[in-house]
Amino acid sequence: MAVFVAANVVNVPMYDEWILSPLVLAFHAGTLHAADLWTPQGAHRSVVPTAIILGLSALDSWNVRIEALAGVAFTALGQLALWQLVRAGRPFLIASLVLYAITQSENWLWGFQLSWFLVNACALGAVALLAGENRRALRVTAAIAAALIASFSLIFGFAVWVAGAVVIVARRDRRAGIAWACAAILASAAFLWNYRTPHFENGWLGNAPSPLLDGLQFALAYLGGPLGIAGGRWLCEALGAALMVAFAFTFAGAERRAAAPWLALLAFALCAAVFEAIGRAGNGVDAALAFRYTTPSSLGWVALIGLWSTNPPRVRIAARRAIVSVAAVLFAVANVAGAYEALQLVGAQRAAFEVLRDPAAHDDEELALYINDPAMLRTAAAQLEAAHLGPYRDPTFKRPAP
User: Fold this and answer.
1) pTM
2) Quick one: which of 28, 148, 158, 386 is 20 to 30 A from 195 by CA?
3) Nearest to residue 285, comparing CAs of 228, 234, 238?
C-alpha cells in the first residue's frame, strides 16, 4: 500500500484540504496560534491530525504525498495492535487484508484523510491495551491517551470511549472504569466548550423524510460498505444486517471476556455509523456509499473475523466454507470498485495539478471541481506560490508563459 500511495498521489491540495492552507501558511510564517488548531473544522475538532499535518509540512514544504504515506503508517500501527489481539496466522492475515483494502482509496490517495486511519489505529490500540493483563495502570493510561487523540481527530473518534468501556465492563475492572468514565466526561466537556454545529451542513438526520427508518438503513449500508459497495445500497444494507446477525450468532456461544475486544471493535464501527447517520442521513441512504466510510466500518468486519477465530460458529464445515467463499468474492469485487475509484481520483489530482499552474486562467465552474469556493482557491494558490509551499515548492512548477 505504501508503494501504491507513493506511486499515485499527486502533490496537490484537493477539496477540504484547502481549508488547511491558511494554517500551513501561518505555521511557516511563524504566526500560528494554538487557538487556530482548536477551531472546529466542519463538525470536528481536528487538533491532532492538523498538528501532524503541520509538522509533516516542515519536512518538504507541505508535500501532501507525505501525509498520504502517514496514513499508511497509522494503519501499520493499528495492524500491530491487531496482532496483540489475534496471533493466529490466517485470521490475522485476512483481517490485515481488510485493514489495507483498496476500497478505502478515497482515504489512501488523499493526504488530508490521514485522520481516518489515525482514529482506526487509536480504536485498535485502546482495545488491545485494555485487553492486556500486565501493567494495568500503564495500559489504562495509554488507552485513555489513544481515546483522547481519536476524540480530537474526528467526531466519531468518541466511539473509542464506547469501545473501551465494553472491554472494561467485561473485565469488571472498577478502577479502570472510574478513570475511563472521568476521562470521557472531561474530553466531552472540552470538545463542547464553545462548540457550534457547522451551519453549512444540510444532511442532518432530522431533515430525512423518515428519520428513524432512513437512519437505520444508512447505518446498515455504512457497515456493509467494505464488502458491498460495488453492489449499491440494498446489497450494503443486507450485508450490514448480515454482519450484525453473524456476530450475534457467533458471540452467543463465546466466552464473554475473550470475546469482549471483538465486541468492542464492532461497537466502535456501529457508533461511527450512528455518528455519520446523524450528520448525513438527511442526504439519503445512498450517501452512506462513500468509499471513505469503509475505513471505520472495516473494523466491524475485523471484529467478526477475530471473534470467528476465537470461537468458530457451530455450523457445518461445508456451510462455513460457502460463507467464506461468498465473502471473499464480495470483497474482491468491492476492491475492484475501489481500484476504479482510485483511477478517478488520480486523474482528478493530475488535472488539478495542471490547473494550479495558473488558477486565474480558469473560470469558477472549472475550479469548482476542486473546491467549493473558487475565489478562495485563487487567493490561497497565490499565497502558496509566494511562500514556495505545496506544489509551488518545486522550482519547475511555474505558470505557463502568456
Assistant:
1) 0.94
2) 28
3) 234
